[in-house]
Amino acid sequence: MDKKYSPRMRLYYWLILAFIVIFSFLAVASGMFILEHMGVIRKLSISTLVALLTVTLVSISLMSYFLGQRILTPMVKLSKASREVAKGNYNITVSDSSKLEEVQTTFRNFNAMVRQLDSVATLSNDFVANVSHEFKTPLTAIEGYAMLLQEPELTAQEREEYAEKILHNTHRLTSLVGNILTLSKIESAQLAPQYTHFRLDEQIRQSVVLLEPQWSAKRIDFDVQLYSVQMHSCESLLSHVWENLISNAIKFSHNGGCIELKLQEQKECVIVTVADHGCGIGQEELGHIFDKFYQADTSHRAQGYGLGLAMVKRIVELLDGLIEVESEKEKGTTFRVILPK
Length: 341
Prior knowledge:
Elements: H1 7-36, H2 38-43, H3 46-86, H4 101-149, H5 156-187, E1 196-199, H6 200-210, H7 212-217, E2 221-225, E3 230-233, H8 235-251, E4 258-265, E5 269-276, H9 283-286, H10 308-318, E6 322-328, E7 332-340
Parallel strand pairs: 2-4
Antiparallel strand pairs: 1-3, 4-5, 5-7, 6-7
């Protein structure tokens, strides 16, 4: 028998096979005996025949019960538990005293699957709640400033200020929607990378220029070490990576701080480093920063959608790359993106 089955399962297999062989042999032997001794059988009483038949049926029933208890009963439990899971009940586990390794393995796998489904359901609910919250914040701000703009005694400066606030929160919504759509396409494998040749250093510079309103408002300087590097990758997806990493560096930098951008070319890969000297991230939080909607800054001094880094990691992995992070509280954070050329 196949070695992937446990010794106990192989024993049951051979017992069943032996039972079938013996039963078949007895059936044939009984038939031959009946043919040879028809006269004797006619002389047997009805009670004797009934007794023989009863013994045979009891033997078969006991064997069936034994097999049912060992194999079929655990499967019935599993079937009932499966129906509960189908109804959305993930607070269920199955267990059995069966010593069959295959049954125990099946139950362990089933329980692991239920835990995973419960985790996915929880994440889905949290995702909806977080998205709703992230939409509500800028929408509330837009509504508030729009109501203020209706005041007739506002000065021109106040009107301009409120209009800028509305525009800022509109950009927040646009960015959030874009990140959600991009991340959704990546995770559902609907977004296939389109590879082209382009200058990686120029793409990073364009990302810095695009974010000029953010870093100029905080008077942030850049220490740029970008050298000409030809890249063969997905230009559109990588633009999301640099914009999110640089935007995060700006967000968590102190006013008047400095952000370092470094591009290194090696034989088979390129390494892009984005480092800030801002508030930093605690070691206990580093393992979660790529989770959706995770906000490491528990003081809420800096706003974050919690989708940017999750999307960055998935894009880098989609392009067969690797992203590393180092951080220390009040000293800053360094991201390294390693990509094949």
